[in-house]
Amino acid sequence: MAAGGRRNPGAVHRPAAGFVAAHRGEGGSMTHPALALELVARLEVTIGEPIDGGDTPAGRRRVIPITGGTVAGPLLRGEVLALGADWSLLRGDGVPSVTAKYLIRTHDGVVLTVTNTGTITVGPGGASGLTTPKIEAPAGEYAWLNDAVLVGTLVPLAGGGGVSLEFHRVQAG
Description:
The protein is mainly beta. It has one helix at 17-22, and strands at 35-47, 51-56, 59-72, 78-91, 96-106, 111-123, 126-136, 150-156, 162-172. The chain has 1 helix and 9 strands; from the N terminus they run H-E-E-E-E-E-E-E-E-E. The longest helix has 6 residues, at 17-22. The protein has one domain (34-172): Porin.
């Protein structure tokens, strides 16, 4: 370290020897832990009429208001508040993308901010999506969500009035 606790840009920085030794596999190489998915919650989100944002350099923009919904799961329960939108984009390559930002109020009154991005695939069986939700939480019971690595799935609700999502936490085991 340089004076004042700053890193010396010319120095070589190595991970702690204990971490490296603990993760070496056969032949001295590092081993990767297996990954597991844990269900956080299922969401049923209702939506309003899309607003056409027209053609942009990035693609065709549609803003879809989020009008409410439910959150039910082993780690998170509550409601989706009627405050937010999906800033959907039909990219030049024909792939629809999702960029949704909205609020969840948990069953015990804590407000969480969700930013969920991903892409939609349209196939013979219908549309489905893969997303990477990020949840911002205040200090307290839900603070673990700030650092959680989450993945999600998305499918339209029957009748077209919304979407069903599942959020899973990725864990190394």
